[in-house]
Amino acid sequence: MPRAFTPKVVTANALLRGDVVYLTRQGHWTRDHAEADLIEDESTAEIRLLEAQALAHEVVGPYLADAIKGADGPEPVHFREAFRTRGPSNYAHGKQEG
Amino acid sequence: MYAYTDFDRDFLAERNAQFRAQVARRIDGSLTEDEFKPLRLMNGLYLQLHAYMLRVAIPYGTLNGGQMRQLAMIADRWDKGYGHFTTRQNIQYNWPELRDVPDMLDALGEVGMHAIQTSGNTIRNVTADHFAGAAAEEVADPRPVAELIRQWSTDHPEFQFLPRKFKVAVTGSALDRAVTAAHDIGLRLVEREGEIGAVVLVGGGLGRTPMIGKVLADFVALPDLLPYLEAVVAVYNLLGRRDNKYKARIKITVHENGIEEIRRLVDDEYVTRRAAFNGADMQLFGKISADFAAPDFVDGAGDYAAHYADDAIFRSFVDTNTAPHRHKDYSILTVSLKAHGATPGDATSDQMRVLAELAESYGHDELRISHEQNVILPHLPKRHLRAVFDALSGAGLATANIGLASDIIACPGMDYCALATARSIPVAQEIATRFEELKLEHEVGPLKIKISGCINACGHHHVGHIGILGLDRAGVENYQITLGGDGGPDAIIGERAGPGFAYDEVVDAIERLVRAYLAIREGADETFLETYKRTGPAPFKAALYPASEKAHAA
């Protein structure tokens, strides 16, 4: 039996800086997970991923990552995606640098 | 040290110019990522979790003060003021931007360094014993052999698309500080009837299928070594599997075909290869060897003995961090990049400059990077040890913990690496911090703890006396412990102890293991590994899993 679809965001790394970005509803890239478009159904997710792949001059390796609705916008589900919203744990580098 | 020729400089400049144009074409949209990725990997540029990463080779771990200063400059100018020294004697910059990478490569080229073949299915940076040319017990300096292999393998047209990556390590000492048995090819230089040659091991490797290398040839004389290596890699290039990435390393080729069949094929191939070598390689080897001539050592230990007798902290530092040098008035000093709580292998640009300055002022302008992620001053006169200790103390580099519990190897793990399944660095930081709080590690003595954040085993956990492997178990970080591994001359793959531990349980588990060892060792001279070999895993498993022990007894 196919697994039930769970909500997703489209994420990738920016081409020039290499940092983590998310696709917004308007089709732009944001560096803030909470501003990502939370996609609730599978067919929309596939279309949005195709749109992201067409932006290959802006980003590298777009993929769908699990997310859930939070108070201020989508939140990551898996710890890997949570790390990607912050940065490494040994220095205050990356997004958590502010 | 090897000095770059005009040929080497021109080659690097041209290669860097090519890559600069490739980066420009990626940015202007002429190249897709699929087209660009193999090009950037050939030049050491990865894309990780949070940013690009540039992996720079430090061939056989040797560099001079000027090169270390340039690494510091690059860290300040294009990164975040530090670099990460790896288990393969590379340095990684974790935060470069794509546009800057060609400038970084040009800056490396200025000091005879590069990032070529630090990735991809090629012959990677050749590693060597970090005490090469300095160790008292050494048979031959492995670096001329390693440099010869570097030149032969760089851009070798036949070996740019091997079935999988290919790692070569060279040692010239029976103590084997280069973990040669865990490499695709391991070379152990030995002397036989007055002639230097190599024992050739093949098919070692860690990763998902850990294997100890097997002896392919028990003696290959130096003049025959390069054609012999070429025969081995040529056989692998055709025989190695390309249908399955996980079965593509030569260790699987050896395992599936048997060492006798590999030896037969190599011996056949060798006849053709040998005939094609006209001696130019040995001419080059002669020139390279001259570049690696030992410095002019100066006799006299000055007031070293008085400092050693008078200052307990200095004495502890010397006892823990130095090793016997071939000259009686010298020491090999290992500078720990494992201050308790710090990231294993990281050095700030300021620390790099201090190390460069010390090498230039006191240490015949030589530095080494070890696979254990420390920096070595290989030729340090004992009369300067006190001054060096004072300077290191001022730079946060005087931690006396070499070979002890807090001298942990850790891969970058999920703090940086896109392949990782769990974090490594904070586990290492917390274990080191715990042992510092307990003030126990000098009592415990030699203990190698090695941590990998995924099955690829960059942290060498299989050959740790205590190995830790971070995995993703149903969306939660989980850490498996292996025991009894050894990366020395009689290398052993550690055995898995049992079920894994949650992130917040693993430090306690390691402490229980170490306390169990202290309770059962037969005197302070019996090391952790010796105790483990004597008792087997049972008392250690009982310490790791006290509850299940009771359940079993009941």
Notable characteristics:
heterodimer, A: 98 residues, alpha+beta, 5-stranded antiparallel β-sheet, 20% helix, B: 554 residues, Alpha-Beta Plaits, Sulfite Reductase Hemoprotein, domain 1, Sulfite Reductase Hemoprotein, domain 2, 6-stranded mixed β-sheet, 21 strands, 40% helix, globular
Please give a structural write-up:
The complex is a heterodimer of chains A (98) and B (554). With 98 residues, chain A is of the alpha+beta class. Chain A has one domain (8-90). Chain A is built from 2 helices and 5 strands. A 5-stranded antiparallel beta sheet of chain A has the order 3-2-1-4-5, with helices on both faces. In chain A, a hairpin with a 2-residue loop joins β4 (59-70) and β5. The longest helix of chain A is centred in the middle third of the chain and has 12 residues, at 42-53. Chain A starts with 7 loop residues before the first strand and ends in a 12-residue tail after the last helix. In chain B, β11 (322-324) and β12 form a beta hairpin. Chain B has helices at 6-27, 33-42, 65-78, 101-110, 143-153, 222-239, 250-257, 259-276, 280-291, 304-310, 312-321, 349-362, 385-394, 425-438, 441-444, 506-520, 528-535, 538-544, 546-553; strands at residues 45-47, 52-57, 62-63, 82-85, 90-93, 127-128, 168-171, 185-192, 195-202, 214-221, 322-324, 330-335, 346-348, 367-369, 375-381, 409-410, 449-452, 466-473, 476-483, 495-496, 501-502. The model of chain B has no long low-confidence stretch (mean pLDDT 96). Chain B has 19 helices and 21 strands. Chain B is 40% helix and 18% strand. Chain B has 4 domains: 6-110, Alpha-Beta Plaits (2-Layer Sandwich); 134-291, Sulfite Reductase Hemoprotein, domain 1 (2-Layer Sandwich), CATH 3.30.413.10; 304-394, Sulfite Reductase Hemoprotein, domain 2, CATH 3.90.480.20; 409-553, Sulfite Reductase Hemoprotein, domain 1 (2-Layer Sandwich), CATH 3.30.413.10. With 554 residues, chain B is an alpha+beta fold. In chain B, strands 16, 17, 18, 19, 20 and 21 form a 6-stranded mixed beta sheet that branches. In chain B, strands 1-2-5-4-13 form a 5-stranded antiparallel beta sheet. At the A-B interface, α2 of A face α14 of B.
